[in-house]
């Protein structure tokens, strides 16, 4: 899974001297998972943090539908995102958007 910078920092900068965390969900400020295992509130914030506007998201989906996994071509259609940003966006959203 592709992690955001904020998600990575939780694992990299854990400098607490606590040996036993009684409530890790509250300690790390996480949202509990839903019954299906997905966390919709995290998916929404991830999309917002990634800096993709609604128009860019629609362009990505349309372009991906025309030429799947051709991220260089998809980026050229969006014009405001790089190939690497398109790849990262795809992997972050592929489960929730079901691009097939």
UniProtKB/TrEMBL annotation:
PROSITE patterns: SANT
Domain of life: Eukaryota
GO biological process, one term: regulation of transcription by RNA polymerase II
Matching InterPro entries: Homeodomain-like_sf, N-CoR_corepressor, SANT/Myb, SANT_dom
One Pfam family this sequence matches: Myb_DNA-binding
This protein's GO CC annotations: Set3 complex
Domain SANT: 47-98
Family matches, as PANTHER family: NUCLEAR RECEPTOR CO-REPRESSOR RELATED NCOR, SMRTER, ISOFORM G
This protein's name: SANT domain-containing protein
Organism: Melampsora larici-populina (strain 98AG31 / pathotype 3-4-7) (Poplar leaf rust fungus)
